[in-house]
Amino acid sequence: MTAKTLYDKLWDSHLVRQEPDGTALVYIDRHLVHEVTSPQAFEGLKLAGRKPWRKDSIVATADHNTPTHDWDKGIRDPISRTQVETLDANIREVGAKAYFPFRDTHQGIVHVIGPEHGATLPGMTVVCGDSHTSTHGAFAALAFGIGTSEVEHVLATQCLVMKKARAMQVAVEGKLGRGVTAKDIALAVIGRIGTAGGTGYAIELVGSAIRALSMEGRMTVCNMAIEAGARAGMVAVDETTIDYLRGRQFAPRGELWDRAVAYWLTLRSDAGANFDKVVALDAAEIKPQVTWGTSPEMVTTVDGKVPDPAQISDPVKREGAERALKYMGLAPDTPIAEIRPDKIFIGSCTNSRIEDLRAAAAIVKGKRVAASIKLALVVPGSGLVKRQAEQEGLDRIFTEAGFEWREPGCSMCLAMNDDRLEPGERCASTSNRNFEGRQGAGGRTHLVSPEMAAAAAIAGHFVDVRKLV
Amino acid sequence: MEKFVRREGLVAPLDRANVDTDAIIPKQFLKSIKRTGFGPNLFDQWRYLDHGEPGMDNAKRPLNPDFVLNRPRYRGATVLLARDNFGCGSSREHAPWALLDYGFQAVIAPGFADIFFNNCFKNGLLPIVLPADVVDKLFREVEATPGYRLAVDLENQSVTTPDGEEFRFNVDPFRKHCLVNGLDEIGLTLQHADRIRAFEDKRRAEQPWLFE
Ligand code: SF4
User: Which residue has the CA at smallest separation from atom 2 of ligand 1?
Assistant: First the structure.
């Protein structure tokens, strides 16, 4: 038998049928649903007189539009409220395995609550009308974002029509330095291959540095696979995966658990499996990363400088860099350590899990947010993360330092609620996209790890967190 | 969905790489629960000088005269010429909805982001990949020639310039079939309902924990 990649195994085990040209019908096990990309799909389903195929595959929550403070006052923005109420109504009508509506104690960012409830399991196909669905690949699931038409397609048929991607292996060997995190691996990979480098590929992350990561860290890396252009990122199952899942609400139990684990442990690439492309990074060489531009590939190390576009030979890249620097209000050759954020955002499906908050709190503990920082926000990824953090006293560490401690949601990752940057404001953000206007019109985003964001909050400018830990 | 066989129209050049879906349709407009009405807010933050919010009267907002789509010569364009990695970022299908609602029927670029590329086909917007040097050449011609139009022939898989120069493009046969015939993909999939059910039964037997 030929050696298979993890991606081959996941693909083959979900193939319902395939045309000679490779167009395939792929079965979907888990359908995550949120309020922004689903209303038109539910409406389409209804208009066509179709029934949902398998409602117990659906796990839904409201996260993108929900406010992060004054929950007792409800959602003030009437358009956001309509969208959230539309989701409530749709789930009431269609049904779901689980729904965590606005203000539910288990509500949170869709990519945080799936794994923490054990609703994401190894060997599954997981889809959501959200590009960061790649996060769930950390569990050796084939997980990818889809558009609203595809949401409707999955609701109606439990399948998607697609073609197999090519397989890329990203190997990160060695040991990460102190203060260097999964987020830095993700940004370093994107810096290397570019935001289109993974287009058309499913990426498997391998190597001792990946195996050494917790599930939280693996989720952070897989989350950012989409920023490298890959729809899916994935990591093989090992004991870390199994340990994380044991006892989770929707994970199997008893005899079924044993059967499941035996199967899950086969979810790894066979020795000698063929990848279409291989990229290797040395973990020891990765430094804390900071983006300087308006695309995640516009990234450098904390001890580096903003580039000088005049030194870039490719004309399209040069023009892109010039435009980015203008938008970001940065001069060429500015040292990263001299960049002074106005706001700090610790949150998003990339970095809002308990470990992220612990790591940031460890930097902040006993210190004060710099006077020049207008707002420092911590937005836990879910109600469960929030409660766990409060039990550990992390909320007090943050609030005593001058951070605001908020209710869970997407918040300033995309600023659909009222957490946002004002024009010209600069933010150190643990989220995943630094596009123009992403965190608010005219806002300027620098993507960093939670530790780096926390350190910048205290110092008032970016600092090399390796010197602090 | 409307059939897409052959279209011909005015071309507008958007000369920047990595145009993301946040730029195509900013998030404040994603609060809508409809599929239509996004056209006036296509490229909102580039197109207008003020900050756009849902519910504003877009006809009264100050236009950015430097933005390419605001130049009179590109008014009524139906073909968008773009650079590499067009449509990167979020999965929002509001991006193709906004492009269609504005009037675009095809986008030509050296490369597209995956999810956006898929979303286009589901809505009858044709994304065409042409080699970077060809796209370069088209940019030069569009900018040099007011009223520049291209003919896009999906059946024949070709783009033809006013001079009669023809460039072929690849398209997935299944997607082409759906677009050319205006087919509903869900209906097509449901023709295989028995296969799906059989697959599901087998899966339930093998991995019952997925169906608890
Ligand atoms: S946190 Fe940000 S990236 Fe993640 S799902 Fe929410 S909006 Fe998307």
Answer: A413
